[in-house]
């Protein structure tokens, strides 16, 4: 399988803090990939550098066989952490905006996903709960027929029951698509079963990457994996 993303020795420093520290990895195409690790391990910085919002100090990065930047971004749907939508838009208006401005946005897919996720199309963003707005942001990204979708902490603010429903929906929906979806989270125990491939990060570097099945066979559950990988860090807290 061809890699959709390769990084070689990528480093990004803020002052004395190394947000990415010689990060090297290769991410295979198709399926759902978890970028996992505790707060501050570099997940968002990694995503921002993939879409050219952050320029690494050194190292090489290839995404869809190209360099990161605005030309490559046409084929990427990116949901930043803490993303918000225009408060005055209704869901329908948000979809119309997206159809007009976002490459490869599929209106019919968005409408289907809104039904599935229980988001009324006449709802105004400013009247939405945090979880409802998070669902809208998710729909605006995954309704784009692009090879790569990058979701930074997309489930923040969504309760556990809705989360499970959305995840089941995502898995069904993705089976019909040839997309790679990168999802970052530090709440691994709540999204067990979602990832085909997992990358565990710590202190700006990848400490393990591979098929999630391999991990499960070795450790039993993702929760156990998390505890094992970050044991020393948890003991320090
Ligand atoms: N613009 C910035 N200026 C200064 N420091 C930054 C900046 N962006 C990130 N950092 C630092 O780099 C490190 C990695 O941050 P990053 O946001 O990439 O981690 P994360 O794994 O996404 O964390 P979280 O799970 O909390 O979102 C942190 O120590 C953070 O404080």
UniProtKB/TrEMBL annotation:
Q: Which InterPro entries match?
A: AAA+_ATPase (IPR003593), ABC_transporter-like_ATP-bd (IPR003439), ABC_Transporter_VariousFunc (IPR051782), P-loop_NTPase (IPR027417)
This protein's UniProt keywords: ATP-binding, Nucleotide-binding, Transport
MF terms (GO), sorted A to Z: ATP binding; ATP hydrolysis activity
Q: Does the keyword Transport apply?
A: yes
Give the protein name, as stated in the record. Answer: ABC transporter ATP-binding protein
Species this chain originates from = Pullulanibacillus pueri
Indicate yes or no for the key word ATP-binding: yes
Every ABC transporter domain range: 5-228
CDD domains per the record?
ABC_DR_subfamily_A
